[in-house]
């Protein structure tokens, strides 16, 4: 996957392995009235710093090199974040992102029907989610370790709602261009219906990844290091 947006906390989790966040990262007082606005600003600032690169301090490559399995290149996160919301009473953390596009490159193998039409082939493919809105919600649980309070992720929900979609499957029907172009046209004319069939599986798979790496941060960095309290 290229140009994949997601979750500021995910970014920090993959790049920060110590017990403290870098001193240049802004912290927000969880009692302040504009906490959510402060959190959004702090996250954008942190992502901007990570895009520049803090390998020496954080112990890994800069943000632009971040990779998870076959997803890569977390770019332009700071400009795409709409809002972050932390509910300390309900222990939920949300990230709302409007992103230009998500491009997924893959190898496929298919034999069957799609929208009642026969389809057969194998080779490279691409699916582009155009202007997707992404909403990730983490449900947290607080616990104590060595006299310090931590959060851990116990559940997550992830919604990915693109405004448009584009599909391209190469080498359909053993390279028959006419048949291949026809099927690709059908896929694109019915993009939302096709996406609806795979939407849940994508959201569940990505949600598990982001919840896991977010948990890596939360279980290593005390709550007091994440959020100040005057």
From TrEMBL:
Keywords: Biological rhythms, Signal. One of its GO terms (biological process) is circadian rhythm. It holds the Pfam family JHBP. The keyword Ligase does not apply. It comes from the Eukaryota. InterPro entries: Haemolymph_juvenile_hormone-bd, To_sf. GO terms for cellular component: extracellular space. Residues 1-18 form the signal peptide. PANTHER family: CIRCADIAN CLOCK-CONTROLLED PROTEIN DAYWAKE-RELATED, PROTEIN TAKEOUT-LIKE PROTEIN. Belongs to the TO family. This is Uncharacterized protein.
């Amino acid at each position: 996957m290229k140009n994949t947006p997601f979750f500021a906390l995910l970014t920090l989790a993959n790049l920060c392995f110590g017990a403290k966040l870098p001193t240049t990262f802004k912290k927000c007082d969880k009692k302040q009235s504009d906490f959510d606005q402060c959190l959004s600003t702090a996250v954008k600032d942190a992502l901007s710093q990570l895009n520049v690169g803090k390998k020496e301090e954080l112990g890994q490559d800069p943000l632009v090199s971040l990779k998870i399995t076959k997803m890569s290149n977390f770019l332009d996160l700071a400009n795409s974040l709409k809002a972050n919301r932390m509910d300390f009473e309900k222990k939920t953390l949300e990230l709302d992102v409007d992103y230009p596009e998500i491009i997924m490159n893959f190898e496929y193998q298919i034999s069957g029907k799609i929208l009642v039409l026969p389809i057969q082939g194998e080779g490279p493919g691409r699916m582009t989610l155009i202007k997707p809105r992404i909403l990730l919600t983490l449900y947290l649980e607080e616990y104590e370790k060595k006299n310090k309070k931590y959060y851990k992720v116990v559940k997550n929900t992830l919604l990915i709602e693109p405004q448009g979609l584009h599909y391209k499957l190469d080498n359909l029907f053993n390279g028959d261009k006419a048949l291949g172009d026809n099927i690709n046209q059908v896929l694109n004319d019915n993009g939302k219906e096709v996406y609806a069939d795979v939407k849940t599986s994508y959201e569940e798979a990505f949600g598990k990844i982001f919840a896991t790496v977010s948990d890596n941060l939360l279980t290593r960095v005390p709550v007091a290091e994440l959020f100040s309290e005057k």
